[in-house]
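Exercise 7b. C-alpha cells:
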C-alpha cells in the first residue's frame, strides 16, 4: 500500500489536507495524525472492521483496547452510558487535553475498539489538527499511538514513517508533539477513581480536582503472571529500542561511576553503549552515544524528549542503553513508568 504523506507548515491553509484525511477515515481507512501527546493512528471508531485494521497495521494484540477521540461533547453522549460527577469535574478542568477517561460504553461502540470490555476509553485532544480532523470525519476516531506494537510511541512524523510507511493510507506531518508521553488514563467507573496510566496530567493535578485517587499497581511495578492491570495495554513490554535498556539508581556520582565502568567493560567485549542522562551529568560519560533528556528538575521537558531519545539509539546501533532515573513527582511518574517498562522493571543499584 502506498502511504500518502502530507506535511502541514501552518503558513498555508490546510483544510484540503484535513478533508482528504477525513474522507479516508469515513471510507474505513487508516490515517496517522499528530496530537499534543504522541502521534495517533486513526480509524472510524464506530466502524468495527476499520478498527480491526489498526491492530493489523501495528501488530497489536487484539485484547488491547483503543481510545476513542472526540472533538466535542455531543460525540461523548453518542458512545457512553453515563457521565459520573467526577468525570464531569475532570472534563471541565482538563478537556480538551492529555487526559483519557474510562466510561461505561453504549452498544454502538464496536468490540474491536474495547477488546470486548463493557467500558470505553475517551479522549478529547487539544491539538488543533487532531481536533479539526475528528470534526471533519464527523465520527469518534479510534486511535492508538502510531507505532509498531512494542516500539516507543512516535513524537514526530519520521517515527511514524519508520514504523508504518506502506501499512497505512495516510500520514499527516504536523511537527513534533509537546507532551511527548501518552495521555493520563483515569477510570471513574468504580467507587474510587483509579489512575491506570500516568501522563502529562499529573496525579497531583487530578487529586486537586477530585480528591484522593488510587494508582493501579501496574503503574509502579512489574506484575506477576497471575495479575492483570486495569488497562490491558500496561501488561505488554513497551517503549523499547532494539537495544537492552538498564536503569541505574543511586547517588549521582556513584551512578556516573557505575555506568562508566559498565561502558569500559562493554568496550573490551566489543559492545557499544548508550547513556540517557540529564544536562548536569551528560558530559561525564564515556559512552559511544550520550543523550541528555533535559534539565533534571524540568520533568515536563524530560518527558517530552524521552521517546525520541529511546528511538535515536536504534539509529546509532548501540547494544545496550544505560539510563539515569528521575524523581517520580509530577510528570516524573510518567517518565519513570515508561523507563521502567522499557527496562522490564529491572534496575541496578549504584
Ligand atoms: O495520548 C494517547 O492516549 C495516545 C494518543 C494517540 O491519543 N493514544 C494512546 O493509545 O496512547 P494506546 O492505544 O497506545 O494506549 C491506550 C491504552 C492502552 O494501555 C489500553 O489498554 C488502555 O488505553 N485502554 C483502552 N481502553 C480501555 C478500557 N476500556 N479500560 C481500560 N484501559 C483501556
Ligand atoms: Mg501505545
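Sequence design result:
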Amino acid at each position: 500500500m502506498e502511504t500518502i504523506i502530507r506535511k502541514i507548515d501552518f503558513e498555508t491553509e490546510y483544510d484540503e489536507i484535513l478533508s482528504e484525511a477525513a474522507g479516508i477515515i469515513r471510507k474505513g481507512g487508516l490515517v496517522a495524525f499528530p496530537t499534543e501527546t504522541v502521534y495517533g493512528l486513526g480509524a472510524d471508531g464506530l466502524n468495527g472492521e476499520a478498527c480491526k485494521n489498526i491492530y493489523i497495521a501495528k501488530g497489536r494484540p487484539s485484547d488491547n483496547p483503543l481510545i476513542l477521540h472526540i472533538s466535542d461533547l455531543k460525540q461523548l453522549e453518542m458512545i457512553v452510558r453515563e457521565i459520573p460527577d467526577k468525570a464531569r469535574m475532570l472534563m471541565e478542568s482538563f478537556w480538551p487535553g492529555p487526559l483519557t477517561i474510562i466510561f461505561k460504553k453504549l452498544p454502538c461502540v464496536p468490540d474491536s475498539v474495547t477488546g470486548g470490555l463493557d467500558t470505553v476509553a475517551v479522549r478529547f485532544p487539544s491539538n488543533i489538527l487532531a481536533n479539526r480532523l475528528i470534526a471533519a470525519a464527523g465520527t469518534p476516531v479510534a486511535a492508538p499511538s502510531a507505532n509498531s506494537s512494542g516500539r516507543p510511541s512516535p513524537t514526530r512524523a519520521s517515527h511514524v514513517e519508520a514504523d508504518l510507511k506502506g501499512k497505512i493510507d495516510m500520514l499527516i506531518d504536523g511537527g513534533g508533539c509537546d507532551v511527548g508521553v501518552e495521555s493520563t488514563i483515569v477510570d471513574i467507573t468504580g467507587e474510587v477513581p483509579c489512575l491506570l496510566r500516568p501522563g502529562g496530567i499529573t496525579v497531583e493535578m487530578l487529586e486537586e480536582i477530585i480528591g484522593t485517587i488510587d494508582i493501579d499497581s501496574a503503574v509502579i511495578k512489574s506484575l506477576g503472571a497471575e495479575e492483570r492491570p486495569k488497562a490491558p495495554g500496561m501488561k505488554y513490554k513497551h517503549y523499547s529500542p532494539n537495544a537492552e535498556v538498564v536503569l541505574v539508581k543511586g547517588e549521582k556520582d556513584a551512578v556516573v561511576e557505575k555506568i562508566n565502568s559498565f561502558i569500559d567493560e562493554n568496550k573490551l567485549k566489543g559492545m557499544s553503549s548508550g547513556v540517557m542522562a540529564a544536562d548536569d551529568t551528560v558530559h561525564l560519560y564515556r559512552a559511544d552515544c550520550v543523550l541528555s533528556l533535559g534539565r533534571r528538575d524540568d520533568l515536563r521537558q524530560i518527558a517530552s524528549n524521552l521517546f525520541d531519545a529511546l528511538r535515536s539509539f536504534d539509529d546509532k546501533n548501540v547494544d545496550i542503553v544505560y539510563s539515569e532515573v528521575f524523581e517520580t513527582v509530577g510528570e516524573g511518574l510518567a517518565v519513570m513508568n515508561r523507563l521502567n517498562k522499557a527496562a522490564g522493571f529491572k534496575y541496578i543499584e549504584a
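Instructor comment: The mean pLDDT is 95. The first helix runs from residue 15 to 26.
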